[in-house]
Amino acid sequence: MEGPKKLLLAATVFNILVLAAVLVVNAGAGDLGVKWGWFRNTTANISVKYPSDITPTPSTFAIWGVIYAYQFAWIIYSLSLLCRKSLNGYLYFTPYFMPLFFYVLYWFCQFGNIAWLFIWDREYLYASAPVLFMTAIFLVGSLATSMSALAEAASELIHEGKSRELWLVRGFVHNGVGMYATWLTVASHVGLSATLIYREPFLSMDVACSICAGVLSAFVVLYTVLDNFVLDKHTRYLFTPYVVLVWALVGIIQRGFDPERGSSIIVGLLLVYGLIAFVVKIVLVCVRSCKNPEPLTDAHAHKAI
């Protein structure tokens, strides 16, 4: 067991270094990076060069600060597990609720984040959207892995009087990764619209943006159904995807709502749906939590999602 323990310990520490690398490269994606010779253009300038009707206002992108702050918070939490013990050892390894595969998938996302900055800088639009989609997929996989592991370890954590770890993982890890994944999902659809407009098949602005907004809407509807009625035991206390979705959609509408454009109508309807879904989510959580505040105490919840 010493080998896996050391590997997981190294992964927990390495994770903060990965985040630091992402922050440095992202900070360099502006004028400083151009001055250093890392990039040919700033990320903002490329966005201006390839405008899209579903690109949010510049102020909307301030959410990146919140996203990275949240990533830092959950990583600090994970590091705290190296110093705190359960009955059978340190919490980073036993119970096994922060698995190695969770970190690996998360790193793939972070490396994809860095790769996208250089792809976008070189204006490889055909590759830009797929890379963003893949980063979002890696994050969803990472989140699912964490939820599954937490469900498996829930009984042991509760038995050892460590039930607060369930809430800390949900509050920091799940909601932090969920926030990141949601924003990248929205960003990938924005990137896809730019590809459809400025590269083959050179669709019109409204057609391309309507397609991408429609696909995003389908994802949102699917997610809300799964979240509230299929995966409730795992996702009951996951709220950040709704907050990020509403934030992004408001940013898109603020950029310029035009009832004559199909994309604007779709985004407007999606915003209304997102707000209603968020209210429904809160109501369902309140009702279900009154009956059973800890969904993972149900034996069926220990099955991997």
Automatic annotation (TrEMBL):
Q: Where are the transmembrane segments?
A: 7-29, 61-83, 95-119, 131-151, 172-197, 203-226, 238-257, 263-287
Say if the entry is tagged with keyword Transmembrane helix: yes
Instruction: Please verify whether the record's keywords include Transmembrane helix.
Output: yes
In Swiss-Prot or TrEMBL terms, this protein is called: Uncharacterized protein
Q: List the lineage, top down.
A: Eukaryota, Metazoa, Spiralia, Lophotrochozoa, Annelida
Q: Which organism is it from?
A: Capitella teleta (Polychaete worm)
Q: Per its UniProt record, what PANTHER family does this chain match?
A: SI:CH211-161H7.5-RELATED, XK-RELATED PROTEIN
Q: Which UniProt keywords apply?
A: Membrane, Transmembrane, Transmembrane helix
